[in-house]
Amino acid sequence: GAVVSQHPSRVICKSGTSVKIECRSLDFQATTMFWYRQFPKKSLMLMATSNEGSKATYEQGVEKDKFLINHASLTLSTLTVTSAHPEDSSFYICSAVSGGAPNEQFFGPGTRLTVL
Amino acid sequence: GIQVEQSPPDLILQEGANSTLRCNFSDSVNNLQWFHQNPWGQLINLFYIPSGTKQNGRLSATTVATERYSLLYISSSQTTDSGVYFCAVDPNFGNEKLTFGTGTRLTIIP
User: Fold this and answer.
1) Residues in contact with A111: Cβ distance below 8 Å, sequence separation at least 6, in sequence order
2) Mind listing the pLDDT tens digit of every residue in chain B (110 residues)?
3) How many angstroms separate the CA atoms of B36 and B41, rounded?
4) Taking CB atoms and an 8 Å cut-off, how many pairs form between chains A and B?
5) What is the pLDDT of residue A1?
6) How far is B103 from chain A (nearest CA, A)?
7) Pick among B33, B93, B97, B104 to test the A interface (most A CBs inside 10 A)
8) What number of other Cβ atoms are within 10 A of residue B14's Cβ?
9) Whole-angstrom Cα distance, residue A91 to residue A83?
């Protein structure tokens, strides 16, 4: 299957700082990537759709100024959590749609963010 | 939006047992995937199955799109099967967004 990586896997930061998370498709090109958030013992919630070469589209209730998304190339999308606060602590997961089976998504290993 | 419910929410089984996990969805779908989330959080693709039946080793899945449900079968469970199983669907909107189900937490006891 297609491989998606995320970096870093874990980050701890102070309140008020910004954190950047990278999502890469390693063996395929992805015009579309997705960012999800998962709280402990809960399901995944879609935050936004990252489109290569254009602005991201955000789900209802997700602050676009808080969660900046840049899809700079066909293999890289970044999520920046700006001015992080403790309530932003969560598990962030990205996914990408492979060019194989239509619509099949493959997921990165996730990034655990802790804001102190 | 589309609702995706999974049952049971929790399942504890002895090693070697078989299990059936269910995913019900409230509207027609273009795509349905099953995932296993391991204890480290990694989502592992199990099946891409918008309709029909597929098998992969001890796992198999069936989706009856007209009746809006999918089943995941795990036979001869092993402790490594423990984790959370999610189904996720893409409604027929063509934008490839997945809506995740509520999940089934499976615990296999040695």
Assistant:
1) A6, A7, A8, A9, A10, A11, A21, A91, A92, A93
2) 899 999 999 999 999 999 999 999 999 998 999 999 999 999 999 999 999 999 999 999 999 999 999 999 999 999 999 999 999 999 876 678 899 999 999 999 99
3) 9
4) 52
5) 67
6) 7
7) B97
8) 9
9) 17
